[in-house]
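Look over this today:
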Amino acid sequence: MTETSARAALPRYRRTAKPPHGDGLLPEQAGAGRAEHEAPETTAMASPGRIASLDVIRGVAIIGTLASNVWLFQAFFGERVVDIWWQDLVSALSEGKFLGLLTIMFGIGLEIQRQAALRRGSRWPGTYLVRAGLLFIDGMLNYIFVVQFDVLRAYAVLGFVVAFVLLLPEKRQWVFIGVALVTHVTLILLPLFTGSVMMFPGLVIPGESPTVGGRPTYWEEVQMNTLTVFSDLTVGTDTGSILTLGLVVFTLGAMLYRHGLFEARGARLRRWVMIVGFGAGIPGEVVFFLMQETFGLNRFLSAPLVAFGILALMASFYRGHRIGFVGRGLSLVGQMALSCYVLQNILGRVAQSIIGHSPLAETLDPLVGTLAMFFVIAALVILFANPWMRQFRKGPLEYVWDVSFRFLTRSRVKAPTVCPISRKLAVGETRTPVIPRIS
């Protein structure tokens, strides 16, 4: 086989204006039977090869995690006027659902990167492990300097583990899911028999004081956070439960994407995911809410099922609809998810600090004040993402992440080779020996 024929046998690549979910190379042609490696054809496409609905769903997940975490910033509000039942109800509507949705999206992103590596002819997990390491560092910095309720460290560990799980045949992946699910449910139900509750080792809720002398200063909190940055990565903690749940959700998310959840062929799959997710998740949510349980059963058992239902519902909706005005704003948040996730936590700390030292705090009902904080912070995040993404291709933290990744992998990342000697043989193809010419 000559070099010319070798070039012809390889797929041609084109550079897109925006990388499709983190990868700037797309094959113009895909081989027969490789539909799972192609960008699903959908009405909601942001650019060639990029699935806009994924960005919208990721944006919803980011803003939704703010709806869950914002309740931790209400320490300085005044006396309660609205019945606490309403606060419990509003809080329950977001509790765990969007954390589950964000976890699913990370699993989907892992599968997208795996498929991109296969198209480039790169080994998997390969340099993805560097990405996981950078994400863990990001999570540590977010934990130490911003807020302790951080999920980035857990996602980094999960990505590292599940990256190798995706190398297994699909039947073995199902076995892995089964074992991880049984382990997760057992650990979640264990407190019902032991009487213990989910713990946050060393956690300092913003606005509350762990000492008798009053609220600690910011740098005192940073010092305490530095000492406890690894303490919650254990069984029996909130982050530990995210880890056991994530093993299941990451792998399932990757499978759903691989089986065409966002493609036309995935209509039946989307229906079944909605039926199972909503059919089992919503009744569980109602039961746990009426029980007023404090063991995290809704957060880590029923809420993830609802999250899968939300994923399938949004995927089905955007199969036949354009993303629209609201969707465009959320998609921009999704495209710079890391930056927006950290930004909303920073804004929460700033808002809590400003309101906490103002006379306004004492006049606000905790429910009213918390909802006001959520809508203001969410609006600021969306307003920040819109002009930024119109001027730049990536968010600010994504730029730092990309530069760091390229620096750390500069000696390993190489352009796809077209040499017939190093190219993998196609099915049924034989190697033509190259005989050196003697002059």
Notes: Confidence is low (pLDDT under 50) at residues 1-48, 200-213, 413-439. The beta strands are 13-15, 25-27, 45-47, 50-51. The CA atoms of residues 79 and 365 lie 6 Å apart.
